Amino acid sequence: MTPPDLAPAACSSDFARNIRARTAWMVHHANSSHIGGAFSMADLLAVLYQDILRVRPEDPRWPDRDRFILSKGHATSILYAALAERGFIPMAELETFGADNSRLMAHVSHKVPGVEFSSGSLGHGLGFACGRALAGCRVHAPWRVFAMLSDGELDEGSNWEAILFAPQHRLDNLVAIIDANGIQSLGDVRQVLELEPLAEKFRAFRWAVREIDGHDHQAIRDALDCVPWEPGRPSCLIARTVKGKGADFMENQLLWHYRAPNADQVRSIFQQLEVHHVGSSGP
Ligand SMILES: Cc1ncc(C[n+]2csc(CCOP(=O)(O)OP(=O)(O)O)c2C)c(N)n1
Questions:
Q1: Of the N and C termini of the chain, which has fewer Cβ atoms inside 10 Å?
Q2: Strands ordered across the beta sheet of 208-213
Q3: Where are the domains of the chain?
């Protein structure tokens, strides 16, 4: 099956469609996993990379760039698709995802232009983001730090140390985005370790908190356009999402944490995304 041939995104909705379609193909082609958690954050990534992040794909280490940290590094397929959409890496390189000697490893790697931090061992991104934000504050830098976390990841105690640390140091250049899809690798978040009331917990730790539908582009944009929400406080955006969002057979299904779609399932995803695929009749 050939990769989808898509027109460049002109808006965040196109962007989300493109990165979902490319991710479906990549995960299928590499026989990889984590498509459910990739699709749940597709709309968040689309708005971030289309409308919010101040970055320069032609100069990935531009000193004044916003820093985006993917803490849920297992879901990196869709970050690579977003980086290709923005021109950080060649589109054709996505075909190497997960292959031997590719720099597009199945957990996120800072060897890839546009990636700030390698992760995959959960629970480290927010602490790293705090360090970056503290460094930025010390020199009154204009850039912001956005860290994307998963909800299951919050079971890691290291997060709570970072959640304590950020308000203590008045890191209002830091935004934590929680992709709250309610499902982790082996069960529902509620059954494994209850997190709710999550917003109240962050507020008790002195963060400014907003809760939105993580698939509503306008709501995402409105929230992220005006950070910090409270001077002197870090911001936490709790994005309520659906694991596998965008493919009806994957939505809210635990199996799709690890399962890779077969060719027919990828064709179905293309159809649902209204992506025309010239190679769709092939094997
Ligand atoms: C420290 C650590 N423990 C265990 C794992 C194995 N693991 C991979 S993904 C995952 C949980 C997935 O659920 P969640 O964190 O909510 O991610 P999402 O649903 O957004 O994909 C786990 C436990 C890991 N990557 N790191």
A1: C
A2: 67-70, 145-150, 174-180, 235-240, 208-213
A3: 12-273
Give the whole-angstrom CA distance, residue 54 versus residue 262: 36
* R_g (Cα) of the chain, nearest Å: 18
Cα separation of 39 and 42, whole Å?
A: 5
Q: What confidence score (pLDDT) does residue 8 get?
A: 95
For the cut 70, the answer to whether the pLDDT of residue 282 exceeds it is no
For residue 219 the two structure tokens come to: 């709501």
Length of the chain counted residue by residue: 283
Token pair of 103 as six digits: 């720099």
What was the pLDDT predicted at 281? 46
Amino acid at 36: G
183 lines ligand 1 (CB under 6 A): yes
185 lines ligand 1 (CB under 6 A): yes
Residues 6+ apart with CB under 8 A from 28: 1, 260, 261, 262, 263, 265, 266
CATH code linked to domain 12-273:
3.40.50.970
What distance in Å separates the CA atoms of residue 241 and residue 216, rounded to the nearest whole number? 10
For ligand 1, whether the C-beta of 27 sits within 6 Å is: no
CA distances (Å), origin 186, targets 75, 191, 270: 16, 10, 27
Instruction: For residue 35, give every residue at least 6 positions away whose Cβ sits within 8 Å of its Cβ, in sequence order, or none.
Output: 23, 24, 27, 77, 244, 250, 256, 259, 260, 261
Tokens 């000193």 belong to residue: 63
Select from 35, 70, 153 the residue to mutate for testing ligand 1; criterion: most ligand atoms less than 8 Å from CB. Answer: 153
Which amino acid, one-letter code, is at 59? D
Q: How far is the CA of 72 from the centre of ligand 1 (A)?
A: 7
pTM, full prediction: 0.97
Ligand 1 close to Cβ of residue 122 (< 6 A): yes
Residue type, 97: F
Residues 208-235: pLDDT tens digits?
999 999 999 999 999 999 999 999 999 9
